[in-house]
Amino acid sequence: MRHLTGYVxxxxxxxxxxxxxxxxxxxxxxxxxxxxxxxxxxxxxxRVLETFDNTKILMFGLxxxxxxxxxxxxxxxxxxxxx
Length: 83
Fold this sequence. Notes:
Helix content is 86%, strand content 0%. The chain is built from three helices and no strands. The protein is flat, with a radius of gyration of 21 Å.
């Protein structure tokens, strides 16, 4: 997504100073987070990845359940409006 921001900013005629403020501050924060993670988790990174792999399945399940509930609520509201 970060690669597309320049095109969107240009198409919406955003001034360069506003674009630079947000783009460069965002890039700085992004780099700072990953450098900090690498510094503190460097040798334990494989353990962190295993933990994320285990929680990924749980997160996908929760997102799928939330999506099903949301679609069901929207469907029932539309059906109620038609009646």
